[in-house]
Amino acid sequence: SYVLTQPPSVSVAPGQTARITCGGNNIGSKSVHWYQQKPGQAPVLVVYDDSDRPSGIPERFSGSNSGNTATLTISRVEAGDEADYYCQVWDSSSDHYVFGTGTKVTVL
Amino acid sequence: EVQLVESGGGLVKPGGSLRLSCAASGFTFSSYSMNWVRQAPGKGLEWVSSISSSSSYIYYADSVKGRFTISRDNAKNSLYLQMNSLRAEDTAVYYCARVVDTAMANWFDPWGQGTLVTVSS
Question: Is the Cβ of A57 closer than 8 Å to some Cβ of chain B?
Fold first, then answer.
């Protein structure tokens, strides 16, 4: 089955840039989506189709995808960005949706 | 406003059954595929099952195949998950999520607030 690997944690100072990676075999050939989940809340879509943002999501959130790695970038990090982040793809070979292992972003 | 509200969670003994419901509003429910996703306490997200708009296509995670059944009633704007032969490892918050489908990709937006299922003796 298809596996998506994320770093367990990323720490960043306010105002700096956080980069969260999502590794998968030839993930660049798939469409990657990213979700933010704050404690006790449901996940929220922050980036879809590699690099598009839903309405209401700040421009500080951006995404890219190439080769074996997709990346969610959070620019000018704020305290409110502290959350868990998950990548997700559709694996057509198994007809399964797959989530990444999740990354906890801590704002120092 | 697009809204998804889950219900039906609770405490059940191992081997028991439970039926979850998800009430949808604010959009044309019959035009969208829907999913169930779960999250065990302190763990990550796990996709459980997916159903197409007309119920023609249904998919399950290997961990629940043969025990769980997804269904929908488009007349009632409702999604269901029948869970049988429950195990301790099925303990989780269960979310329903709408699938946004394009020709090239599909993602989940929005999600419901979740309902907690606890399997314990």
Answer: no
- pLDDT (tens digit, 0 to 9) for every residue of chain B, 121 residues total? 999 999 999 999 999 999 999 999 999 999 999 999 999 999 999 999 999 999 999 999 999 999 999 999 999 999 999 999 999 999 999 999 999 988 778 999 999 999 999 999 9
How many other CB atoms are there within 10 angstroms of residue B117's CB atom?
Answer: 21
Angstroms from B27 CA to nearest CA on chain A: 17
Terminus-to-terminus CA distance in chain B, angstroms? 40
CA B87 to the chain's CA centroid: 17
CA angle A62, A66, A67 (to 5 degrees): 150
Question: Whole-angstrom Cα distance, residue B111 to residue A12?
Answer: 28
Partner residue opposite B35 with nearest CB, options A97, A101, A102: A97
Question: Hey, is the C-beta of A96 within 8 angstroms of any chain B C-beta?
Answer: yes
Given CB atoms, is A2 within the 8 Å cutoff of chain B?
Answer: no
